[in-house]
Design goal:
Helix 7 links the parallel strand 4 (126-130) and strand 5. With 345 residues, the chain is α/β, with parallel strands linked by helices. The protein is built from 17 helices and ten strands. The protein has helices at residues 2-19, 28-36, 46-57, 73-78, 92-97, 111-118, 135-146, 159-162, 164-169, 171-174, 206-220, 229-234, 247-251, 270-273, 290-301, 318-323, 325-328, and strands spanning 70-71, 84-88, 104-105, 126-130, 152-155, 226-227, 240-243, 259-260, 282-285, 306-309.
């Protein structure tokens, strides 16, 4: 009986203590909850929202396991003679100088019509897009994937990986440590999210808006899709530079002023994309320029003036990448990436 009375007394005292808190007081947990649920007002135009919804309804490719769709030259070679189509985006002269057996040469601007009426895309197990360095192929693959062609892949490293002759004038000639001494190690934060660009296609459905934007991007070509390290380092403040890579790689040194955006947590996410200014040229980069080319295509689809940094980190901090290759899992282009397969002339 005494034990029960003691328990009742303890409970009563506890309740009294709680009730005696000031009415306007807030617990630490409540403060944290309020700060975490703080909302930011983001302007999303009707066309942008319809396009976002349409892409999400059709598989949300950018947040799927298939993204980014890159394939090694060894896999392409392994399937030679099988149900794959190789599309070579290089110039007709480069194609004549040497190409993968069975490949067809197509200009970038020709691809929508070629996929619509020149072939039956889904009769192939894989459609491989090839370019000089793999980055134009990655940009192209992103657009085709978003258009619904789910069997398209970009060949990593381009023709430089297929044969050593292309590597000498391709990736090896582009690898550089010229700006390694200018690397920034300060963490820069993205501005507050505000708005997505207005596309103004005049269309009234996500599918039609996408078709109009894809048509425009293919008509625009690829001349201004890439930007060189020399241009960016000459005046980095002129651009909004996005580092699209792991945090530890960003902290190891990045383009001055670059802001890190998380892979797998940026594209298609309104609050992240809306923090990217659309009144400034956006430069996206990663270790090799492949992933950033995919990102660039997506941003351009939504109206951003986006470029991918040619050859990625390989173009400005190559020696450091080689030195820290094991530590940070860098991907510097080396002879290990060259298979030296035969070409057709």
């Amino acid at each position: 009986m005494k034990v029960n009375l003691i328990l009742i007394l303890i409970i009563a005292l506890s309740l009294a203590a709680c009730n005696n808190q000031p009415k306007n007081s807030t617990s630490d947990n409540q403060v944290i909850a309020q700060s975490e649920t703080k909302t930011v007002s983001v302007q999303v135009g009707a066309e942008s929202q319809m396009l976002l919804d349409d892409l999400a309804a059709n598989g949300d490719y950018v947040n799927s396991r298939e993204f980014p769709s890159l394939i090694d030259a060894s896999k392409v070679h392994e399937m030679m003679g099988g149900k794959q189509l190789i599309i070579d985006l290089r110039s007709k002269q480069d194609f004549r100088n040497g190409h993968i057996g069975g490949a067809v040469q197509k200009d970038f601007e020709q691809l929508p019509a070629f996929f619509e009426s020149g072939i039956k895309p889904f009769e192939y197990e894989r459609i491989i897009v090839v370019s000089n360095d793999g980055q134009t192929a990655a940009y192209t693959t992103m657009l085709l994937r978003l258009m619904g062609y789910g069997n398209v892949y970009a060949m990593r490293w381009g023709m430089s990986s297929w044969n050593k002759d292309f590597a000498q004038t391709g990736w090896f000639s582009a690898c550089s440590s010229a700006f390694q001494h200018l690397l920034d190690t300060v963490t820069h934060l993205a501005p507050q999210a505000s708005a997505l660009p207005e596309m103004n296609t005049g269309e009234s459905s996500g599918e039609a808006i996408g078709a109009a934007r894809f048509g425009q991007l293919f008509a625009d070509g690829t001349a201004d899709v890439t930007i060189s390290a020399e241009t960016v380092f000459d005046n980095p403040g002129e651009y909004y530079v996005i580092n699209y890579d792991r945090k530890d790689k960003y902290e190891a040194g990045h383009v001055p002023g670059a802001i890190r955006y998380k892979p797998g947590a940026t594209l298609g996410i309104v609050n992240e994309m809306a923090s990217i200014p659309h009144d400034k040229t956006v430069v996206v980069y990663c270790g090799t320029g492949h992933n950033s080319a995919f990102v660039t295509a997506y941003l351009r689809l939504f109206g951003y003036d986006a470029r991918t940094l040619a050859f990625g980190n390989n173009s400005f901090m190559y020696d450091q990448m080689v030195a820290d290759r094991t530590l940070l899992s860098w991907l510097p282009f080396t002879s290990e990436e060259i298979y030296d397969y035969d070409v057709v002339k």
